[in-house]
Amino acid sequence: MAQPRPRHEEENFLIVGNRSWFHACIDLLFTLFFWGYSLLVVIFFLSATFGFDNSLTRIVNASFNTINSDIRNLVILGLAIFIVFYVILSMNRLYNKKRFGNLKRRSYPAAVSISELEALGLMDNETIAQLQREDYVVFEKNPIIPLSSEKQ
Fold first, then answer.
1. Three-class DSSP labels, the chain
2. 124: phi > 0 → left, psi -120 to 50 → alpha, else beta; which?
3. pTM for this predicted structure
4. TM segments (predicted)?
5. Are residues 77 and 28 in the same domain?
6. Which of 43, 86, 90, 51 is nearest to 68 (CA)?
7. Per the domain annotation, does 59 fall within a domain?
């Protein structure tokens, strides 16, 4: 059975917020500012690493009293640390695979049959049949029969 469509298009969203245009514009401005700042940092590191001389590298190098070779050494140090960690973690993975083998041992249980559900005695047969038959069920009252220890 087909579900009815929502009356308004904004009901299609999972989260509907009531934000003013002012807050949305402020959020957009902050987001654009920080994306632009991140882009400038990436451009600075790339241009300083590869030795391109532009106004951005001159300004930042003068501000922090550095030269392009300092930035290049910093990038090389970062890459070296990354490679060392990558090699160590790869060797650890290889060691664990050789020592413990492939760890895909979990086997999932088989599907529950209707007779097993009826044997539990936690729901009546009509409820089990309704759950098997329909895709979406709304209960007014909890259909699970309480255990005898929970009643007392």
1. CCCCCCCCHHHHCCCCCCCCHHHHHHHHHHHHHHHHHHHHHHHHHHHHHCCCCCHHHHHHHHHHCCCHHHHHHHHHHHHHHHHHHHHHHHHHHHHHHHHHCCCCCCCCCCCCCHHHHHHHCCCCHHHHHHHHHCCCCCCCCCCCCCCHHHHC
2. beta
3. 0.52
4. 21-51, 71-89
5. yes
6. 51
7. yes
Residues in the chain: 152
Which residue from 125, 146, 127 is spatially nearest to 137, judged by alpha carbons?
127
Q: How far is the C-alpha of 121 from the C-alpha of 129, rounded, in Å?
A: 14
Instruction: State whether 120 and 88 are in the same domain.
Output: no
Q: Copy the structure tokens of residue 4.
A: 């009815």
Number of domains within the chain: 2
Domain limits for position 132:
114-145
Residue 47, both tokens: 């241009």
